[in-house]
Specification:
CATH superfamily of chain B: MetI-like
Largest sheet of chain B: none
CATH superfamily of chain A: MetI-like
Distance between the termini of chain A: 65 Å
Order of helices and strands of chain A: HHHHHHHH
Shape of chain B: flat
CATH class of chain B: Mainly Alpha
CATH class of chain A: Mainly Alpha
Shape of chain A: flat
Strand content of chain B: under 5%
Radius of gyration of chain A: 21 Å
Largest interface: A-B, 40 and 42 residues
CATH topology of chain B: MetI-like fold
CATH architecture of chain A: Orthogonal Bundle
CATH topology of chain A: MetI-like fold
Number of domains of chain A: 1
Oligomer: heterodimer
Number of helices of chain A: 8
Number of strands of chain B: 0
Radius of gyration of chain B: 21 Å
Number of domains of chain B: 1
Order of helices and strands of chain B: HHHHHHHH
Chain lengths: 219, 229
């Protein structure tokens, strides 16, 4: 039924923000867990295993996120698991995040000066212990701005879940648009919500980056 | 519980459609790269050395596009513009969205590269009697390209991957073709596996070409060379 666009429609779209945020939060959390494992495999001395981790990162960065989502969603059937849209979205975006985060964090670990490794070795720290106690804390500091930057990318990417039927911001706005036929207002409103979510994060990432650049120049 | 069996028997008959879809994906991406980069150069010029009001316009444009999803931009253009009396075919709407999206990201990348060029360089150019446009293009933009080419190439890959979203408005690119084939033969997973592989090949060919272009023209020394992986 076509009806006039009213305040209830905007409230409905606004309330769908929680599903976008929940999916993003769980996906970045799941992604971070997997990314730690991928980074660990990437850094281990057994070369073929390290290549496997690199291949994993490359795969997710060189294929469309939509295809990754479809493969998870429809792939479940073939192993006998019927995945709900939200489950498929959560798995696909966690894997997607893990690849990007693993790439970012590997770069951050590599950015810690070599002599930190050498110094720890001279103090007879084992390699895993060096990584954990000496390198990781320094890498963590460098990794915050790009990780926040990736979170913005992830929030935007979760909009793809609407294509397999998960009701988040974009899907909710499609419902409203289909019954009110006011695309400019409806999609404009959703764009404002996304902007309100992402812009502060983008600004924060930029501020952190500037602050980090200043502190590294000082030291 | 019945188990489906993986089968690729449909593939030979679908090759023509897949090739046409891949062709359109590549064509859309190529157009978006050329036009989007041109727009981005104008944006970067406006933000660094153009008139102030134009710089502000581009800043707002860049922030809006970079902080909203591509899919929403696509819907806004495809479903929203007809409300303003502008009717676009799905392919045209996809191309327009890709240009708009890419140019916003590329503006920021090129601007950062331009700002990394020491000011004395453009002053030297002016002192030699070159026009402002020549100074911008030859003395600022070309050296900046050396620094910004790798992130720019990464952004080109992103827009190629983003083009798959055009399936949501049924443009005839690769993902839409895949949807149609899968709807016809119910070999959903197999179709998407094949198409993912095609994307992978296109991305690596694009990266290879971009790296080759860089290594042949811009890279000055051996260790500056760009690698595909």
């Amino acid at each position: 039924m076509i009806h006039a666009l009213g305040p209830n429609d905007f409230l409905y779209i606004l309330s769908a923000t929680q599903w976008t945020l929940l999916l993003s939060a769980f996906a970045i959390f799941g992604g971070a867990l997997v990314a730690v494992i991928v980074v660990a495999i990437r850094m281990n001395p057994v070369r073929p295993l390290a290549w496997l981790a690199m291949g994993y990162v490359q795969f997710f960065q060189a294929t469309p996120p939509l295809m990754q989502l479809f493969l998870v969603y429809y792939g479940g059937d073939y192993v006998g698991i019927r995945l709900e849209a939200w489950q498929a979205a959560l798995i696909a975006f966690s894997l997607y995040s893990s690849a990007y985060l693993a790439d970012i964090w590997t770069g951050c670990i590599a950015a810690v000066p070599r002599h930190q490794w050498e110094g720890s070795r001279a103090l007879s720290f084992s390699e895993p212990l060096t990584l954990l106690l000496v390198i990781a804390p320094q890498a963590l500091k460098i990794s915050v701005p790009p990780t926040v930057g990736f979170l913005v990318q992830l929030i935007k990417t979760t909009s793809l879940a609407s294509i397999i039927g998960y009701v988040e911001l974009v899907r909710a706005s499609q419902f409203i648009n289909n019954s009110t036929l006011q695309p400019l207002l409806v999609y404009g409103f959703v764009a404002c919500i996304y902007f309100a979510l992402c812009w502060p994060l983008s600004l924060w990432a930029r501020t952190l980056e500037v602050r980090l650049a200043k502190s590294s120049r000082r030291s | 519980m019945y188990q489906q069996i993986i089968s690729f028997g449909w593939l030979p008959r679908a090759l023509d459609e897949l090739a046409a879809g891949a062709g359109l994906t590549i064509w859309l991406t190529a157009q978006a790269i050329v036009l989007g980069t041109l727009l981005a150069v104008i944006g970067a010029w406006a933000k660094t050395s153009g008139p102030k009001w134009l710089g502000i316009v581009f800043s707002v444009y860049v922030e809006i596009i970079r902080n909203t999803p591509f899919l929403l931009q696509l819907f806004f253009i495809f479903f929203g513009l007809p409300a303003l009396g502008i009717y676009l075919q799905p392919d045209q709407a996809a191309l327009l969205t890709m240009i708009i999206n890419l140019s916003a990201y590329a503006t920021e990348i090129i601007r950062a590269g331009i700002e990394a060029i020491p000011h004395g360089q453009s002053e030297a150019g002016l002192a030699l009697g070159l026009g402002k446009l020549h100074v911008f293009l030859l003395i600022v933009l070309v050296p900046a390209l050396q620094v910004i080419y790798p992130p720019l190439a990464g952004q080109y890959t992103m827009i190629l991957l983003g083009s798959s979203l055009a399936a949501a408005i049924s443009a005839n690119e690769l993902t839409s073709v895949a949807n149609v084939i899968a709807a016809g033969n119910f070999r959903t997973l197999e179709v998407y596996l094949v198409v993912t592989l095609i994307y992978l090949v296109i991305v690596f060919v694009l990266r290879g070409l971009l790296a080759l272009l860089y290594n042949l023209t811009i890279a000055r020394s051996r260790d500056q060379r760009m690698r595909v992986l």
